[in-house]
Amino acid sequence: MRKVSLTCVAALSLISLQANAAFLGSAQAFGVLAGSTVTNTGVTIISGSVGVWPGTAITGFPPGIVTNGTFHSSNAVAQQAQADSLTAYNALAAMAPNTVLTGTDLGGLTLTPGVYFFSSSAFLTGTLTLDAQGDPNALFVFQIGSTLISASNSSVLTINGADDCNVYWQVGTSATLGTDSAFQGNILADASITMNTRASLIGGRALALHGAVTLDSNIIEAGCLVPAPSAAALALVGFAGMGLRRRR
């Protein structure tokens, strides 16, 4: 039987537990972050802060509702979150892909942890299943050269311990989630993000670096709002003792 040393397990635990903090920094506290404007129509419910920088406009709250967070319009908090989002975007884009999916519709696929690359647009029609194979800290990264588009009533499903807050969508231009689509994970788009009527985003965030985030009667639940422990803290208590707990 193949043996895995405690050192390897500790290293993997460290990487997994630090994933959100390393990638997202202060942007981890946000459910929605835009470069130009945040515009909402209808009763959108967001868990996590809402911010914009360098733009100033956040409109549609109320009727939109924010829980577990606050509003940051063109202030230092939003500016730092945007800087951290850019760092995360570049880090995700620099990862070496395991699989090239250019030209493949994500609908109907079952994918295991890894880095998936699209040279141009990525489409989701139907259901994409993300299978963590028993590892609650498994990472799923999607590198998309241009647009991300989900069709109406499409969905992302996580199974076998997959944590939606460990799913990342690095989008070269803009992302559009179709009407009544049920999406999961963190969307980091260079331009804009549009969530059509009743689309949901669970366990993640809508982070637009330069453009607008446009909402319409949506549900956004930012996952892993509690920051992961620092590397120094993990070293003090011992890596293996931290376990592989799911952080929500």
Q: Kindly estimate the percentage of residues that lie in beta strands according to DSSP.
A: 35-45%
Q: Report the sheet with the most strands, covering strand number, pairing sense and barrel closure.
A: 9 strands, parallel
Approximate shape: globular
Which radius of gyration do the C-alpha atoms yield?
Answer: 17 Å
Q: Which structural class fits the helix and strand makeup?
A: alpha/beta
The unreliable regions are: 1-19, 226-248
Q: State the helix count.
A: 3
What report would you give on this structure?
- The protein has 248 residues and is α/β, with parallel strands linked by helices.
- The protein has one domain (29-227).
- It is 18% helix and 35% strand.
- It contains three helices and 24 strands.
- The radius of gyration is 17 Å and the shape is globular.
- The model is unreliable at 1-19 and 226-248 (pLDDT under 50).
Summarize the topology.
Blueprint: H1 6-24, E1 30-34, E2 37-41, E3 45-47, E4 49-52, E5 57-59, E6 65-67, E7 71-73, H2 76-93, E8 99-100, E9 110-111, E10 114-118, E11 122-124, E12 127-131, E13 140-144, E14 148-150, E15 155-159, E16 167-171, E17 175-177, E18 182-184, E19 186-189, E20 193-195, E21 200-202, E22 206-208, E23 213-216, E24 219-221, H3 231-237
Parallel strand pairs: 1-4, 1-22, 2-5, 2-23, 3-6, 3-24, 4-7, 8-10, 9-12, 10-13, 11-14, 12-15, 13-16, 14-17, 16-19, 17-20, 18-21, 19-22, 20-23, 21-24
Overview in brief:
The chain is α/β, with parallel strands linked by helices. The protein contains 3 helices and 24 strands.
